[in-house]
Design goal:
mainly beta; Neuraminidase; Methylamine Dehydrogenase, Chain H; 39 strands; Beta-prop_SPT8; WD repeat; repeat; WD40_repeat_CS
């Protein structure tokens, strides 16, 4: 038997034949502890909670929570119920394959005759979830006040939603000024960071320890990247230099000097070349081993802020002002352009399969573009400040972004739904990256801290 009321939960076991009685107090997470009159159902060592009413907020919830008794872990599902509900009942069918949520009272304090049917597997297997099929049948639902009862036949639908959840693992402290960039190594045990304190630092993810400090830049370091093999770090600074460092020794192995400000820099996928953007309106490709300039593209518009190789290394994307351009590496010709942002584009990235581009902007939006059709596919809205960085997960199903609203946000690519907001930084979040296995997010901020988040 299970009993719940606000902050208290009890699991009671009683066997009359063997004269056995035992009970355990269950931990209730903060999200649901403020609610009561929620529905709940037990299935496969998990308890699912639906809706609820909060006296403190005078609000009705539409969230679904899952508590794993074995793992003692809570998961929150966003936007799961079609309407806010409390005093509803959760019923499991005979073969434990479907959950039915029946009846309840909505946020207008009106009793509704509601039937929500959802697959158990979709809610239980949260980390492996690919599709969440939700079928809703509403017989007599008052959508807004003074609207008569009746059928709403067009409400049944399938909501495609990939669920991920992250929590703060650790905070890395060492930089004394704004962290401008953070990047994982290819095998993901390390991250490299660059800061306004003129240093580049390498950190161990498992322990949180600082492994190396690269000193030599005489001005703020804008960014640092690992080479694909993880043996080298490249950094660039407002001092006008690009420097290559040995990860194992911490020694500078090469230095490039330019008269013009460096705006962005990336390794090619094979690690043989570096592409860099300069303030004199040129994009240059360098040989990593010799330091010789292999190619220069000087046809792009001014104010180009960032660039990246495509996964196959044959194309490059760059952004300037409100426009994203796709370039052919061999010819240096512009292949396509993407225009829809209403303010400056701050970052562009290819999808892992190279078929799409994701961009973020000072207009507070994130946009996904289909390269073949040259059209915007989706616009993701939710940030309340400038969006500074964006990155695809390795599987291409999720996107993570960061903003001047001090948050990191997780998005589902197919549905465009915001899945989670990560809060913890005390100032603008300037940069973000995802580990190769997609289980760890790293973020850097103007608060001088690096935060590690795990799923």
């Amino acid at each position: 038997m299970l009993l719940f009321c606000r902050k208290t939960g009890l699991s009671i076991e009683y066997d009359e034949n063997n004269n056995y009685f035992q009970f355990h107090k269950l931990f209730v997470c903060n999200d649901i502890s403020q609610y009561h009159y929620y529905g709940y159902v037990y299935v496969n060592n998990n308890i699912l909670f639906f809706g609820g009413f909060s006296n403190n907020k005078s609000a009705v919830s539409k969230l679904v929570h899952r508590y794993s008794i074995q793992e003692r872990e809570w998961v929150t599902f966003k936007h799961t119920l079609p309407i806010p509900l409390y005093k509803c009942s959760g019923i499991l069918n005979e073969d434990s394959t479907y959950i039915h949520i029946i009846g309840g009272t909505d946020d207008k304090n009106s009793i509704v005759s509601t039937h929500v049917k959802t697959k158990v597997n979709a809610l239980m297997d949260v980390l492996q979830l690919s599709k969440h099929e939700l079928t809703i049948v509403i017989q007599h639902w008052i959508r807004i006040s003074k609207i008569k009862l009746g059928w709403i036949n067009d409400f049944s639908k399938i909501i495609i939603k990939y669920i991920r959840g992250f929590e703060l693992l650790m905070v890395l402290q060492g930089h004394s000024s704004t962290v401008n960039s953070v990047r994982f190594s290819a095998d993901s045990p390390k991250i490299v960071s660059a800061s306004d304190d003129n240093t580049v630092r390498i950190w161990d993810i498992a322990s949180g320890k600082q492994l190396q400090i690269f000193r030599g830049h005489t001005d703020r370091v804008i960014a640092a990247r690992f080479s694909p093999d993880g043996h080298t770090v490249v950094s660039y600074s407002s001092d006008g230099t690009i420097r290559l460092w040995s990860v194992s020794t911490g020694i500078k192995v090469m230095k490039f000097k330019r008269d013009f400000k460096i705006l962005d820099l990336e390794f090619s996928p094979n690690g043989e070349y570096i592409i860099s953007v300069f303030q004199d309106n040129t994009i240059q490709i360098w040989d990593v081993h010799s330091g010789i300039e292999m190619k220069q593209i000087s046809k792009y518009s001014k104010d180009t802020l960032n660039t990246q190789f495509s996964p196959d290394g044959k194309m490059v994307i760059s952004s300037n002002d409100k426009t994203i351009s796709l370039w052919d590496i061999k010819s240096g010709e512009t292949l396509k352009q993407f225009k829809d942002h209403s303010n400056r584009v701050t970052r562009t990235k290819f999808s892992p399969d190279g078929k799409c581009i994701v961009s973020c902007s000072l207009d507070k939006t994130i946009r996904i573009w289909n390269i073949e059709t040259e059209r915007e596919w989706k616009t993701l809205k939710g940030h309340s400040g400038h969006v500074n960085d964006v990155k695809y997960f390795p599987d291409g199903k999720f996107i993570v972004s960061c903003s001047n609203d001090n948050t990191i946000r997780l998005w589902n690519v197919d549905s465009g739904i915001e899945l989670q907001t990560l809060k913890g930084h005390y100032h603008f979040v300037t940069c973000v990256d995802v580990s190769r296995n997609g289980n760890i997010i790293v973020s850097g901020s103007r608060d001088c801290k690096i935060r590690i988040w795990r799923s």
